[in-house]
Every structure is written in structure tokens, then in C-alpha cells.
């Protein structure tokens, strides 16, 4: 690890324990080492284990809070959400232990946008995990939901974890396999 990756928390922060998925509070003054910067979130090591700090709390480790890379104006929110923007947001979601996004890992099975009766659009995502016992599943799904709902035109997002078909390595994209050194 480089000196640049070692930080001291500037304030208390909620963090997710890896791989169990429990939300815990890390106190101000805790020494952390950043091991991954993935999708705007940070995986850090402490003397008490590994945690994921959400991008919205990046300031506590001296990092900039990530800004959306699309038009967030009111005009952009009129009409259905841009499908490419939704997929782009899903590509910013990572299992904190694997340096490949959930789309290239082949974890996202479907994404659809449906118009709501009361107006706006709801995005429905079906995804799986690399292993059924992954305690981070709910955190990964919530990360996906929170990123999708940022897309203009999305008034609600629902991410469901499904197990059929079972995930296998053949579902990883070519780009993901290259990142993992599988090809």
C-alpha cells in the first residue's frame, strides 16, 4: 500500500462490514487504508477488519464526493429515463471484493423501465450474486438502487436478487474476464 492510501477518518461514518454486510459506525480518528476505489465507493482496511464506505461519505477520508456524469436538470427528467444512463450507473456498482462491475460480472439479468400510473418511471432490475451466501448482497443491491434512482426520469428503482439461472463464470463479459486475468 502507498502512503496515499492511508487515511484517518475526519468524522464518524457508517460503513458496511465486508463480507458480512452489517452496517457499523467507524469513529472519527480511525486509521484506514484504502484498498479499492470502485464505483465511487471505497473499500478500506482497519485494525478491526474490512469495510465499505459509500461515496456520499468520501469526504471523511479526504476524497471528493463523486458527481453524476449526466445531465441532472429538470428538463432531462421529462420523459422516460435514458437506458444507456441506467446501464452506465449499474456499471458503477461493484462487489467490494471483486474489481469488476456487476454488469461485466454478468450479475445483472434484466433492467426495464415502466411508467407509473401516478407519473414518473420505475426501473426494475433483476440481479444475482456470485455466491448465495454473500452477506454483501443487500448492500450491493442497495448501491445499485441508489445509483439508478439518480438517473433523470427515474422516480423509483427496485433491485431484486434472484437465483435463477444460477450465476457462473461464463456470464462474465470479455472485458470483465480480461480485468480478472481469466483471458
TrEMBL record:
InterPro entries: Fe-S_Maturation_MIP18, FeS_assembly_SufT_put, FSCA_dom_sf, MIP18-like. Pfam families: FeS_assembly_P. Coiled coil: none annotated. Residues 84-159 form the MIP18 family-like domain. SUPFAM superfamilies: Fe-S cluster assembly (FSCA) domain-like (SSF117916). PANTHER family: FE-S PROTEIN MATURATION AUXILIARY FACTOR YITW. NCBIfam families: FeS_long_SufT. This is Putative Fe-S cluster assembly protein SufT. It comes from Puniceicoccus vermicola. The gene is sufT.
